[in-house]
């Protein structure tokens, strides 16, 4: 990627001549160009506005970036570029911005361009061609960098249109150079196996078309291995939320190179097999922290304030019939101020919920494999045994592993404080459901708010079904529209990084 600029004389003509000359270089072809943008000068202000644009070049193997720079400097000289004032007027300015996924630190050439992330006149046309290009060293896409600019920086960038419409003489114009976004460097065949989880229809998958040919299945049966294999087919990229990708599927799909799990948990993918087959796997971390924490609060307040019961009582006429002040002693209201919250798993979501509960006046204990400075600001780290014994409310926020499966079982529940409230919005198998059902029935656990189960959807004979002191929601804590849009945005970033040869969020 190169940047072009001119602010002397016939600016459009200088840009055009430069592109013609670049396209005539050995081992170089101009593939795509942005619009022309009129931009305010940076640094030295006593000069005319610039015309700026970005061009994508195809460079044959063997053409070194330093040799390209020499050629560009020679073109500047041919077009009467004078360097008399730093950042001053110039007939033409040609800068190497990006070279694939390379980082170059040479006295003559720095790539990515050292001021790229700060300059609207570069990022705006660059985003037009390659919004999802992951900038090496910054680990951010061009769109990300553009979003981080102040609005004031953008006001001085005005689109003028295509260069071929602005230049007086476009003879010799590179035939293959076209206006608009670059085609992906690698055309992927992309399959989404269960798109309805992230996007039931209120959001858009259109961004996937920037990366290749896309097939989207709203749902795929989890227990039909042959169907899964057929749908993955020849795809090089698969996006799955809950559809399992085990040894039988992975071994039958030799073209598969990259899996994105459109969730934080990734236990539906056999990572060992994927690694052995050279398949990269990424997840989507920290997209739903606010949404899940809010749902935890909703479950907790439902159980402590009995809002549903009292709303139904009003609807049944009991308030009107029984007393001016109606209170049902079988449904006591519990104050949270001064109570102790125990958070099992103190990552992003656990800490988000802790912040909410601290605002309600609760004290917080945390159990986690490791401690963090942010965690220590919110809670006191303790052993699991201490947390179980001292907490009035216990909330689970662990990933599911062999070590965490049934971390809350009959033995753990024998250690809890009488009257404890238990919440699980993380993974169903963290709880032994029969042990919890028994504890709810005998009163060891006063109430439970559960969003995830060991079997989903819940079978009709599930141990927790029908218990009055257990509220169940259908795995929806994560599913706010805002959260799902962040998930899609992160899928976009994962794909951009993968195609740039720098996959992120690997598990």
The top-level CATH class of the largest domain is Alpha Beta
The amount of helix comes to: 25-40%
- The CATH architecture name of the largest domain reads 3-Layer(aba) Sandwich
Oligomer: single chain
In what range is the share of β-strand residues? Answer: 15-25%
Distance between the termini: 31 Å
Shape field: elongated
CATH topology of the largest domain: Rossmann fold
**Helix count, DSSP H or I runs of 4 or more residues:** 18
Give the CATH H-level superfamily of the largest domain.
NAD(P)-binding Rossmann-like Domain
- The overall number of domains is 3
Which secondary-structure class do the elements indicate? alpha/beta
Mean pLDDT: 90
pLDDT < 50 stretches:
175-185
Question: What is the CA-based Rg, rounded?
Answer: 30 Å
Main sheet record:
7 strands, mixed
The beta-strand count equals: 23
Which short descriptors sum up this protein?
single chain; 507 residues; alpha/beta; Alpha-Beta Plaits; 3 domains; seven-stranded parallel β-sheet; 23 strands; 32% helix
């Amino acid at each position: 990627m190169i940047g072009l600029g001119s602010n002397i004389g016939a600016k459009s003509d200088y840009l055009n001549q430069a592109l013609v000359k670049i396209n005539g270089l050995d081992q170089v072809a101009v593939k795509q160009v942005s619009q022309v943008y009129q931009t305010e000068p940076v640094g030295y202000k006593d000069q005319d506005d610039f015309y700026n644009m970005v061009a994508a070049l195809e460079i044959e193997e063997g053409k070194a970036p330093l040799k390209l720079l020499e050629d560009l400097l020679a073109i500047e000289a041919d077009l009467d570029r004078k360097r008399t004032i730093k950042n001053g007027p110039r007939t033409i300015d040609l800068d190497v911005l990006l070279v694939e996924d390379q980082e170059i630190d040479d006295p003559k050439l720095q790539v990515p361009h050292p001021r790229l992330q700060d300059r609207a006149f570069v990022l705006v046309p660059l985003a037009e061609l390659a919004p999802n290009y992951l900038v090496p060293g910054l680990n951010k896409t061009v769109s990300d960098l553009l979003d981080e600019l102040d609005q004031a920086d953008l006001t001085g960038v005005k689109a003028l249109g295509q260069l071929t419409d602005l230049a007086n003489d476009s003879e010799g114009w590179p035939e293959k150079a076209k206006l608009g976004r670059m085609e992906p460097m690698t055309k992927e065949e992309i399959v989404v196996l269960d798109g309805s989880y992230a996007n039931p229809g209120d959001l858009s998958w259109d961004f996937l078309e920037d990366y290749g040919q896309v097939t989207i299945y709203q749902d795929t049966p989890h227990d039909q291995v042959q169907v899964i294999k057929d749908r993955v087919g020849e795809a090089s990229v698969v996006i799955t939320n809950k559809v399992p990708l085990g040894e039988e599927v992975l071994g039958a799909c030799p073209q598969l190179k990259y899996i994105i799990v459109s969730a934080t948990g990734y236990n539906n993918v056999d990572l060992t097999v994927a690694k052995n087959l050279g398949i990269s796997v990424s997840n989507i971390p920290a997209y739903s922290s606010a949404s899940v924490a809010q749902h935890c609060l909703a479950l907790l307040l439902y159980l402590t304030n009995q809002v549903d019961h009292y709303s139904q009582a009003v609807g049944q006429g009991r308030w009107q019939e029984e007393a001016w002040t109606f209170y049902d002693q079988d449904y006591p209201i519990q104050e949270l101020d001064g109570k102790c919250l125990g958070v099992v798993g103190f990552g992003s979501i656990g800490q988000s919920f802790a912040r909410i509960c601290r605002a309600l006046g609760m004290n917080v204990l945390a159990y986690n494999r490791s401690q963090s400075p942010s965690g220590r600001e919110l809670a006191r780290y303790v052993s699991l045994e201490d947390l179980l014994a001292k907490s009035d409310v216990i909330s689970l926020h662990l990933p599911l592993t062999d070590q965490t499966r049934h971390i809350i079982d009959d033995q753990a529940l024998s250690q809890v404080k009488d009257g404890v409230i238990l919440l699980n919005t993380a993974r169903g198998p963290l709880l032994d459901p029969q042990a919890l059902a028994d504890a709810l029935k005998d009163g060891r656990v006063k109430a439970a708010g559960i969003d995830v189960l060991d079997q989903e959807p819940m079978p009709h004979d599930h141990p927790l079904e029908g218990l009055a002191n257990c509220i169940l929601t259908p795995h929806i804590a994560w599913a706010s529209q805002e959260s799902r849009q962040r998930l899609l945005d992160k899928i976009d970033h994962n794909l951009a990084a993968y195609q740039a040869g720098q996959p992120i969020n690997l598990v």
